[in-house]
Amino acid sequence: MSLEDTLYPLLKLYEAAPQPVKSLAGRAYRAIPPSLRYGSGYTRFQREAHDVESWDAETIQRYQVQALRESMIAASKAPYYAERFGACGVDPAKFESLEQLADYPLLTKQDLILHREEMVNPQISANQRLYITTGGSSGVPVGFYLQKGVSRPKEQAYLEAQWSRRGYREGDRVAVIRGGVTSSKAKGSISYYDATRNWLILSSYHLTLERLPEYVAALNKFRPQHLHAYPSAALMLARGLEQTGTRLDFDLTSLLCGSEKLTQESQQYLEQAFAAPVFHWYGHSERVVLAGQGRTSNHLYFWPTYGFVEFGAPDANGYREVIGTSFHNHAMPLIRYRTGDFVKLATFPDAELPMIEVEEVMGRDYEFLISATGRQISLTAINMHDRIFDGLLAVQFYQEREGAVEFRYQPGPQWQSSGLEAMRVGLLKKLGDDFALALREVSEVEKTGAGKHRWLITKSG
Question: What number of other Cβ atoms are within 10 A of residue 372's Cβ?
């Protein structure tokens, strides 16, 4: 197990400590070599991410067949998969070609909600599993297990390999505007320093024209090499600088923008506003597949060694659902998982990398809740990566007027009403003290005409 995974249970204690304590502990932690912090898996995945860009098709296919076989053998140890594989007449031990994957059943988010504990590989002990949730940003909060010593070092290695395409190097100074809670008060602090990573964490909840000078001052003092932000937050900062005629007094090496849709027009605007290249990528909390822009191309390339990606049939506009099978996480593999995300394959491939190439991800438009003081709270920032949504089938925000929001939740068979107060506290920590929050149980959340879940409904009142 990596040192990072060993210390993970202490994270909340670290975050609650006074800044001088955090700085001292963080600097000591950062002085430890990355291979020890993240574990031996980090070095392996670093090497893998570097090498795969030069692999030929045969080498990639050979790797994928082996990784798929290992994932499906691990999955078959779990009761849920054992039953489904048996019903389909498939045997992972006999998996020898990519074409055989079509014989295996698809997995949905609903399956994951209802049968999560039955999908756990009993041969991986409980102390080797790390529980994570998707946060509900799709309207369907999903919980699952990662494998300690594997999943997190792998994610770190592959993200850094992607970011290096825009000049990132391990240890660089990074300013982050990605949902970190610096204060639950509307007039609270906008930032804190994370010495464990040499990152300045800036609030994405307090970014208004009124408080823009505080952000500019913090950034100019820290002088980051990279801005790691939700696209919506980066755009708000850029527009604020433009509207006020303010400039940062340092040069950025890159903007690292993930977790939300980023249009070509928005990317061009950000690159002009900050005079730095933007790197955009697609991934998700389940960590099944990952795709990032090339070094010169703005198309997204799926890493063939991170997970195996398939696509559903194209719709009328050419969008196809992303279906993924996870590699390396043998605590709870996800086999042929329907992500609910849609992409458009490249019509005219740049073929910069030996990977499957897409030209567009169909993400949600930027969605915001408006507080009583006019703050815009991006729904992406309200991701709840803990257990407060456990047992719920769907969640949804409803807002008619500024400062008042109703949180609707659809219970599943395992929902415990004793979790209501923890859910209220967790949501208010993100929203802040200039919101009135009401919780409402519903038999079904409102959906689109196509039957898709909606994370936010707003009505003019």
Answer: 15
- The pTM score is 0.86
- AA identity, residue 212: L
**Rounded distance, CA 379 to CA 431, Å?**
10
Q: Is the pLDDT of residue 448 over 70?
A: no
Domains parsed from the chain with CATH numbers: 1-361 (3.40.50.12780), 368-458 (3.30.300.30)
**Torsion sign, CA atoms 73, 305, 179, 8:** positive
> How does residue 461 score in pLDDT terms, banded at 50, 70 and 90?
very low
206 CB neighbour count, 10 Å cutoff:
25
The secondary structure element, H or E, covering residue 240 is helix 231-244
pLDDT in tens, 65-99: 999 999 999 999 999 999 999 999 999 999 999 99
Integer distance in angstroms from the first to the last C-alpha of the chain?
Answer: 53
Burial of 21 (0-12, 13-18, 19+ CB in 10 A): exposed
Task: Name 398's Cβ contacts closer than 8 Å, sequence gap at least 6.
Answer: 405, 406, 407, 408, 456, 457, 458, 459
Going by C-beta distance under 8 Å and a sequence separation of 6 or more, which residues neighbour residue 168?
A: 160, 225, 226, 253, 254, 256, 279
Q: Taking each helix axis from N to C terminus, what angle separates 79-88 and 57-75, rounded to the nearest 10 degrees? A: 110
Residues 208-258 have pLDDT tens digits of: 889 999 999 999 999 999 999 999 899 999 999 999 999 999 999 999 999
